Amino acid sequence: xxxxxxxxxxxxxxxxxxxxxxxxxxxxxxxxxxxxxxxxxxxxxxxxxxxxxxxxxxxxxxxxxxxxxxxxxxxxxxxxxxxxxxxxxxxxxxxxxxxxxxxxxxxxxxxxxxxxxxxxxxxxxxxxxxxxxxxxxxxxxxxxxxxxxxxxxxxxxxxx
Amino acid sequence: xxxxxxxxxxxxxxxxxxxxxxxxxxxxxxxxxxxxxxxxxxxxxxxxxxxxxxxxxxxxxxxxxxxxxxxxxxxxxxxxxxxxxxxxxxxxxxxxxxxxxxxxxxxxxxxxxxxxxxxxxxxxxxxxxxxxxxxxxxxxxxxxxxxxxxxxxxxxxxxxxxxxxxxxxxxxxxxxxxxxxxxxxxxxxxxxxxxxxxxxxxxxxxxxxxxxxxxxxxxxxxxxxxxxxxxxxxxxxxxxxxxxxxxxxxxxxxxxxxxxxxxxxxxxxxxxxxxxxxxxxxxxxxxxxxxx
Lengths: 160, 292
Prior knowledge:
The structure holds 2 protein chains of 2 kinds. Chain A is α+β, with helices and mostly antiparallel strands.
């Protein structure tokens, strides 16, 4: 039936969920409203700002531009699932090096950076820039984000 | 908000085609949805039935064979095309195009087939595929047919899919020897939709360097991706020099019917077509020479 809720199964931050969801629901709305994982932000809702970036099966994707059912059976990671009990090295570097200004774009930046570093532990500056190209920062704080990601990459590779 | 629909997620092409033939004009296919969800959110598209083909893994492939050329499954994501070593080596212009297509997040979810079926004249892949003389395989319960990419777009956001039909494969022939292909687009920021875009292929005659064949196609310069055949004639049969590259751009500009929007007036776009056709053609020529 049109608009009728259907069963959605997905794994979010390692935890399996089974929910009844209307098929026209966006992934970001399931995360924020059903699962109360409000760390993922909604900026433009129009695939322009990147604030809603999450990882699906390890890839950076905009959760405002994916139907929840398109993530059916897949593994979603949000900012809440990045660090566990303590901060992830990417988050730590962003805090330590003052990359965060108002913080609204930060969860999306972290998710883009995490997808990059999981795939490519030693990215060039160009690759870091490209990875966060789709994440807008209204405070124009890009340089410190880039530097923090590079510092985190170094730390994750075992350097100090 | 997105209007209600009944949702299906077929796992095979046959299942998808059965659903399509059952619901026909009331059904709409969604692949990655990176363009389509935007118009659905705006309420401009309100299908009764949504057939989500993103999970049909059989349409996610990149294959190459010397004779048949390149075959890309319609559900291959942009990022896979960008990263494919095979495409980088043999069809470099396609990975270059993908690198400037939107952002990594979009390329990680959006598909090449979805982009083409959206029928946006500002889309990046179509002009490059037209320059490469690519064809599309369309499938329905009645069978399969192939269509030139340049014949596929009919009007703004309208493509030549019949009810019950879906795009299943993009077929790109291996360019002949002594060929070069290049694409350029005007962006304010990397990854922006091109204010104008141009893709050019040039094939030289072995030995004397005369242009044997050329194709020029534009994005965001008409209601469909536009092949500018008069501009091609400027180059074909000639030993290409600076003057002819400029002339090809000027002729292409007269063939276009550019849109007017916040990014540029028609006059501005016509000027930019001259610049971007010349640039893309110069690069294609350089590559064709390097391949000779």
